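User: Before I run my own analysis I want an independent prediction to cross-check against. Here's the chain; please return only the structure tokens and, at the end, one sentence I can use as a sanity check.
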Amino acid sequence: MVTKALLSCAALLTVATASARIGVEKVAEKFERPVWVGQPAGISDKLWVIEQVGKVWIIDAKTGARSEKPFLDITADVSRKGNEMGLLGMAFAPDFKTSGRFYVNFTDGSIKTRIVRFTATKPFTETDAASAEVLFTYDQPYQNHNGGWIGFGPDGYLYISAGDGGAGDDPQNRAQDLKTHLGKMLRVDVSPEKGYIVPKDNPFVGKSDAKPEIYSYGLRNAWRCSFDRKTGDFWIGDVGQNKWEEINALPKGKAKGANFGWRLREADVPNPNGKIAGDNPEGAIDPVYVYKHGGSSTEGVSVTGGYVYRGPVKELEGRYIFGDYQNPRIWAFELKGGKASGFKDLTDELKPEDGRRINLISSFGEDNEGNLYIVDHTGPIYRVVGK
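Assistant: Structure tokens:
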């Protein structure tokens, strides 16, 4: 369990900040509510940027110059009725460079989440929206907690973050209910030409009272997840309710069947509205780091999960870098013995040249060289650099 010493950011912030000189450079700007940036395998000169409204743009990785037309425009299908709705996630097939296939996660006008496969047209700089193949959908009972992250794991399968469906305190206990996709991490095999296959080793395959796509459960609203490109470890930033924001990390392959505890617990603390007290429910996974949900300068309101840094700035090597959306701070720590160690506040070092903090950190991103990107929901995209 996370010790109470780790529950206070204020205490951890006494640790000295990084000794190396680091900073950020602006890569591009003037996007409409950007929520993701990334790059397919085998391509280094371009980056793809998601706008929540339903567009994806290609930019030059060096100059930031934007493509004349969107790579993808599905604004007609995407709904932005709620602040957390929209086009929320994107993942390139490992063979995108030859197949042109990619996947998106968005909410539609009927307040359903759609997981959709598209195939770009050669030279893979534009996509015909008519190429859409809806793999599956699930209802969103409210307009918040849609999850939205989607990504390929080191096993080649597609992982999908599904939030608990919204409102507060997960009123129908969906995150613990295996008969719904909500509040879960899903895992599917999308290698077939059409549709998908449920991997045979998914933990609930063959059980009549569980969705076979479920890989792990007990999540509230996992907003930005990642796999460590070196180790394959799985990292999840799960947004808290009223008291705690949390970071979960599991070794490669160990998320299978994991219960992250929500709504029975918020982070590693019993949730009175979840009708449980005392020890964790059997099999529940404790977060590796939590911080207080609040408005002070050392805390935050909505965690934005990040990446274990594997890029060219050697001083950041092996550190998990993450932030908070509403209190725009950026932090880093190393994982040692299953606990956060060497916590550092990088906020002041990672300020843009105008001296202001990055405004609303909606996402982090990574390219094929391990460079880390920071997405500001107000429009700009930044790259972390050494100075």
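Sanity check: Confidence is low (pLDDT under 50) at residues 1-19.
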